[in-house]
Amino acid sequence: MPEVVTTIAELRQRVASARELARREGSSDAPVSRVVLVPTMGALHDGHLQLVRQARDLGGIVVVSIFVNPLQFGPGEDLDRYPRSLETDLSRLEGLADLVFAPSVGEMYPAGSVETRVTAGSVASLYEGASRPGHFDGMLTVVAKLFNIVAPDVAVFGQKDAQQVHLVGRMVRDLDLPVTIAVVDTVRESDGLALSSRNRYLDPSERAAAVALSRALAAGSAMAGAGTDAVRTAAGAVIAAEPAVKLDYLVVVDPETFLPVGEGHSGPAIALIAARVGSTRLIDNERISFD
Ligand code: PAF
């Protein structure tokens, strides 16, 4: 089992002594002195483990944080039922993580709430943010706190949460945070469904229907040669044919600005999709090139 640390003070001390050990061994420039953070909310699946494996490949000290952050859940969202499985998570991290930071809510937010938050900006009110007001402010606030607590050289995020990746990158640039963001491709089930901690909410018929999201993206991507409208139409048709899937948004965005692209767009883009399957909200995305 990896070592588990629950307080900020102890985490800082453990990271500092690991760095110091590396320095004393005369390897301060070698990867062993690098600290790589993988922030998670636990309920670890193979997608998370892929992030941790990539963190391992970067070399150095791998810290995985496990914290279900109340600040990024809105009223009526799944904060209470969000899966919590620390013991299983720890066994899955065996041999992959050096340190697990699993603080309590009281440790992260001792005053019960935070007055000071990171504001995610205008892109945060689009797509996921339109359905989940305040979500990205809460997410960036905890990510900024984790960066300050762990002081990682590299932090690893999954492309599955494309808007999150964009906003974290923007925060790092805007606030000059001394960390490099590494992005890992989405891991999928054999039928294409993107791995997500929320997939476990799906009953068997919802699980069968949920594959429509990745199928829609594949159908859209196959139409890239015909322009962005054709991509949206093809993807939309797949969702419309699956009555159990209620589309929230389907949009093609510029990877730099994260704003929707127009019909004449050329170059790289990302197709984003979100839909409700029963009471479960799922998201997915695919990179598309319009040449
Ligand atoms: O992607 C997640 O699991 C969360 O949004 C994160 C980055 C761990 C912040 O709570």
Task: Walk me through what this model shows.
By secondary structure, the chain is α/β, with parallel strands linked by helices. It has 2 domains: 3-184, 3-Layer(aba) Sandwich (Rossmann fold), CATH 3.40.50; 197-285, Pantoate-beta-alanine ligase, C-terminal domain (Pantoate--beta-alanine Ligase, Chain: A,domain 2, 2-Layer Sandwich). 36% of the residues lie in helices and 20% in strands. The chain contains 10 helices and 9 strands. The strands form 2 sheets. It has a 6-stranded parallel beta sheet, with helices on both faces. A 3-stranded antiparallel beta sheet has the order 7-8-9. Helix 6 crosses helix 7 (162-174). The longest helix is centred in the N-terminal third of the chain and has 17 residues, at 8-24. The structure holds pantoate. Pantoate binds at residues 39-41, 69, 72, 139, 142-143, 161, 164.
Topology:
Layout: E1 3-5, H1 8-24, E2 35-40, H2 46-58, E3 61-66, H3 86-92, E4 99-101, H4 105-108, H5 128-131, H6 135-150, E5 154-158, H7 162-174, E6 180-184, H8 204-210, H9 212-221, H10 228-240, E7 245-253, E8 267-277, E9 280-290
Parallel strand pairs: 1-4, 2-3, 2-5, 3-4, 5-6
Antiparallel strand pairs: 7-8, 8-9
Helix pairs in contact: 6-7, 9-10
The structure holds pantoate.
